[in-house]
Amino acid sequence: MAHRTRQLGVWNMGKAILQREWFRQLAVLAGYLSVYAALHPFSDAQWSLIAPVRLACLLFLPYRYWLSLAIGDSIAQGCVSLPHGKDFGWLWAYSSLVPDVLFAMPIVWWCRRQWGLFPAKRLVNFQVLWLCSLMASAVWALANFGEIALAKRDPTLPVGSSMLALLFIGKYITILAILPWVLMARMEYLSETPWKQRLGELARNIFAADTLALSLSALLFLLWVSHHSHEDARQLSLLAISLPAAWLTFKPGWRAATLGATPAILCVVSLLRDWPDPSVFQSETFIAVTVTFLLASGARITAQRHRDEKERFDAEQIIHLARQNIHLNETRLRKSAQALKLAGSTLHLTQHQLLARFHSLLPANEARRYYRQATTAQDQVNQLADSMHPSAWRERGLPAALHETIKGFLSDLGVAYGCEIKDRRLSSLPPVVHMAIYRLACESIAHINTQMTCSRVQLYLRDGVTNDVHWVVLRVEGIMEKAQINDAVYDTSERQLLASKLGSHGFGLDTLRNHARLFDGELHERITLKGIRHTYLLIGESNRSLQRSTISATTHPWVT
C-alpha cells in the first residue's frame, strides 16, 4: 500500500511539473536546439533546412513560446558563429547572435492575426501561406546577406545581388519542400477521422499504380543522369523531374502535389550542388516556381473538392429530411385511417342499435332502406380509410396492399389487374421505401388512366442486392386490349374517381421523377403498342453514407 501511495505521489508530481509554464518553455527551447543541432550539418545556402523549421515554429506554436524560440535561435547561432570569430571577424560573430527568427515574427503575426492564415482550427489559407513564406525567405535572405557583408572574406569573392538571390531561393525552395509536410502532419493530428481510415486512404494514394509508376520512372531517370553526368542531361532533368508532381497534383489535391514535389526538389538540389555553373539560380528558380504553381493548383483543387463535398452533404441532408417528412406524413395518414375506420365502425354499430330498437315501429321497406344506407356509409368510410392508408397494408404488409387494395379499386371500374412480386429481401427495406413503392404505384396507375383508357393494368415488382446496395424495380403498365374495350369504358364517371380512391394527388411526370430521385432512383416512361409503361428504379439504402463533414463551410478559393 505504501509503494502504491509513493507511485501516485510521483505521478502527481510529474503531472504538476508538466502543467507548469516554465517547464513547457524549457521544453520548447530544448526541442528547438536539438532540431537545429541535428539539421545544421546538412544545411547550406542552397539548402537551408533551418528556414522551414523556424517558419513552422512561428506558424504553429502559440505566441507565448516565441520568446523561448528567439532565445533558442540566438543560442544556436552563437554556438555556430562564435568559434569562428577570429576567422571571419568578431563583428560578424556578434551580429550573428541576433536571432533570425526575430525578423520573421512581425510577418507571421500579421499573417496569422490580420490576414486570416488559419480561418478555423482545421483550415489554412494557402494564398496567405505562400505570401508569408516568400516574405520570410526575403527577410532571412537580407539578414544573412548583411551578416556576410560584415564578415572578413576574400576580396575576390563578390557579394552582390546574385548572392542575395541565391540566399533567397535557397530558403524558399527548402520551405516548399518541408513546410507542406509539417502542415499535413498538423492537419492529420487535428483531424477527427479515425487513424485506421486515414492510414488506409494514405496507403491507397501512395501505392496507386500511377503513383508507383511515376515515382519509379523518376528514380530510374535520376540513376541514368547520375551515371551520365552531361550538362544536357542535367538540363533535361529539370523538366522531367517535375512531371510526376504535375500528374499527382490533379489526384487528391495539394497533399498529392506535396508527395510529388518534395522528391522533385530533393533531386534537383542534389543535381545542382556539384554543378559549377552560374545558372544554378535560374535552375532553382525554375523548380521553385513550378512547385509553387503545382501546390497552388493542388490547393485550389482541394478547396473545390471540399466545397463539392459540402454541397453533396447538404443535398443528401435535404433528401434525408424529405424522406423523414414522407415517413411522418405516412404515419399521420395511417393513424388517421385507423381513427376514421374506428369511428366508422362505432357509427355503424350505433346506427344498427337504433334501427334494432325502432325496427318494430318502421315499415319493412323503410327499415331495409335505412339498413342499406348504414351499410353504404360504412363502406364509404372504409373506402376512404383505405385510400388514406390501406388496411391490408397495415395488417399484412406491402404485398397485400399491392395485390388486394389496388385490385379492388380497379375491379370497380371493370379494369383487369395483375400483380407479380419477386420478393427476395423486400421486408428488409426501410418502411419509407415501402411507402414510396405503394404511392408511386398508385400515382402511376392514376396518371396512366388519365392518358388512356386501360382495359388492364399490370404491376411488376422485383428487388435485389448489388454490391451491398438494395435496389427495387417497379413497373406499372397500362394496357388496352381490344377484346375488353367495351368492359373498360362502360363507366367513365367511375374512372374519374379512381385517383381519389387510390389516394393519388394527380402528380405529373416531372413530380413523379423528383419523387423517385428522393430514393436515388429514376423514372422511365415508354409508349408501347398496347399502352403506356412506367418503370422505376429505387435504391433502398444510399451508397453514400450521410455523415457530417469535418470540413467547415467556406467559399474562399484558397482556403482548405
TrEMBL record:
<feature type="transmembrane region" description="Helical">
    <location>
        <begin position="163"/>
        <end position="185"/>
    </location>
</feature>
<keyword id="KW-0472">Membrane</keyword>
<feature type="transmembrane region" description="Helical">
    <location>
        <begin position="21"/>
        <end position="39"/>
    </location>
</feature>
<feature type="transmembrane region" description="Helical">
    <location>
        <begin position="206"/>
        <end position="227"/>
    </location>
</feature>
<feature type="transmembrane region" description="Helical">
    <location>
        <begin position="91"/>
        <end position="111"/>
    </location>
</feature>
<keyword id="KW-1133">Transmembrane helix</keyword>
<keyword id="KW-0812">Transmembrane</keyword>
<feature type="transmembrane region" description="Helical">
    <location>
        <begin position="123"/>
        <end position="143"/>
    </location>
</feature>
<protein>
    <recommendedName>
        <fullName>Histidine kinase</fullName>
    </recommendedName>
</protein>
